[in-house]
């Protein structure tokens, strides 16, 4: 009997160590992912700008990944200066927040010098027809958002669900123009323009009507 409990204790200790190792790796990954910032230029023009006094040039329809420390920063473009704060990795709400804030979803920090439109969209995988959350749009010079799929990734056709899971929502961050194209809203844009309505304006368009998923 004594040997049995010794063996059981060793097994429990082993599983606890594995759990701590996985949790530690997850925390390190969350900390590492918060360091990167994506500078994105979805327009058809090359842009020049300064970040904290350092000069940058970004070709049309391109992006660049840089590393910025958390805290206050400045962006200067076309004679205008903007301030933004990088939050980066922040674990709020204790260990439970590691799971509540999304294990699979990555945190994207986007520097948007052209103040173009970006949209966070939701896609459901599974059975039934649930009510969709409202898509979110962003056009600030800097924003941080969690998404399962980034700007240059696509929604997969199918995903694997855990046993007993009926369905899940996945999220993707779109550039404004890509969002319009993905959900066939470009026809609506053309119709608006023919009627003399400029609600749509390419990458800086406001999403006047969200798609029916």
């Amino acid at each position: 009997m004594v040997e049995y409990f010794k063996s059981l204790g060793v097994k429990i200790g082993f599983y606890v160590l594995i759990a701590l190792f996985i949790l530690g790796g997850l925390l390190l990954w969350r900390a590492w992912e918060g360091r990167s910032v994506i500078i994105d230029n979805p327009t058809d023009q090359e842009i020049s700008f300064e970040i904290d006094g350092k000069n940058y040039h970004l070709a049309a329809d391109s992006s660049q990944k840089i590393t910025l420390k958390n805290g206050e920063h400045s962006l200067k473009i076309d004679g205008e200066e903007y301030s933004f704060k990088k939050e980066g990795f922040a674990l709020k709400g204790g260990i439970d927040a590691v799971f509540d804030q999304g294990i699979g979803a990555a945190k994207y920090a986007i520097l948007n010098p052209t103040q173009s439109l970006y949209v966070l969209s939701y896609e459901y995988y599974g059975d039934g027809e649930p009510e969709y959350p409202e898509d979110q749009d962003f056009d600030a010079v800097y924003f941080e958002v969690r998404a399962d799929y980034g700007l240059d990734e696509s929604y997969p056709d199918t995903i694997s669900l855990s046993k007993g899971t009926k369905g899940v929502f996945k999220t993707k961050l779109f550039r404004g123009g890509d969002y319009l194209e993905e959900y066939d809203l470009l026809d609506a844009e053309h119709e608006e323009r023919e009627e003399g309505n400029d609600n749509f304006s390419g990458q800086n368009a406001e999403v006047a009507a969200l798609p029916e998923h």
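The chain has one domain: 34-204. The helical segments are 2-33, 96-100, 176-182, 186-194.
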